[in-house]
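Handout, page 2. Input:
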Amino acid sequence: MPYVVLLAMVAGFLALQLYRVLGKRTGHQETLPKPAEERAPLPTPRTVDMAPEQREAPLRTIQGGAEQGLRAIISADSSFDVVRFIDGAKQAYRMVLEAFWKGDEETLAWLCEDEVRTSFAEAIAARKESGHVLDNRLVMIERAIISDAKLEGKRALITVRLDADIAATTRDAEGNLIAGSMTDAVAVHESWTFARTLKSSDPNWKLADTDEA
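Output:
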């Protein structure tokens, strides 16, 4: 089972401004992620030569393996914009993490597909039963790169690799520190997959899967 911590994405997230993206299994363990001894360098992605309006995508935004899938998605939905999607994905990442940490299942319900939402709900229930409280903070998203994209019929799936720094602590019901530190952030590397049925009445992307990168 994927690690339960986190993890999103978007052609118009937050209704009018960003595209939400989020889907299938979730991670984010209650224990703190171990800091990586050494951050492996990412392959240098290229901008995708798909259409003039898409060439504005900044360097180091797309890995080569995602290009073919993105071309297919843009061909099926010309309104899709790579830059706006990346911005929305980062917003979704922050919102999902904060909702999970707070136990806000209502927010998770509209950000995630059913299977992901259920996994989060189970993790939140287990946390409540143990009496643990998370006091976490997303310090910085250092990098967000589209690492994979594909079109399955009308269903588009885009995977984003996210490298972030998170300050995290776990406390008991009395507020006593069990683990972690708010002064020492740890490096987190995750892959979030977002899904959306193109040209549907719902413009939002939802979290379909989370995994460790």
